[in-house]
Amino acid sequence: MTGTALQRTITQMKRGTFGNTLLASVIDKHAPFRTQRVKNKRSPWITHELLRGIHKKDFLKKKASSTNDPSIWKQFQDARNKANNSVKKAKRKCFSDNLDANKSDPRKTWRLINELQSRQSKSTSVSGKKQKTKFSPHLVILLKHLIIILQT
What we know:
This protein is mainly α. The protein has helices at residues 3-15, 20-30, 48-67, 70-101, 106-116, 137-151. It is built from six helices and no strands. Helix 3 runs antiparallel to helix 4 and helix 4 (70-101) packs antiparallel against helix 6. It is flat. It starts with a helix and ends with a helix.
């Protein structure tokens, strides 16, 4: 390598333009990016019994896929339907109970509704003043029906 070529290489290295493709290919080969799943907090309606049913469903699906046995596929379908219905029922009961417990507090009620719709909560405050309002019983009944409709 001549003196000017060496100086050019050193300048490129200082700027970070030399060997980016070579360096990137070496890094990609020896230390590739991995995607990693980040778990969210567990939902309040998920119990150990529900998890047991979900794990049984997953186990049966894996077994049915590997053996391709019709009887195991039937067991998987029954376990899947039972697990899905149990989760829906538990979620509906959890939201219904929480709605009944917080029907006198509109803030908590709306928080529950937004959680049901998977909305992100935005914390807002009203300049230190406390406001006391109540939902009408008719609105509470409508909200319960809305929850049931959204669950199915």
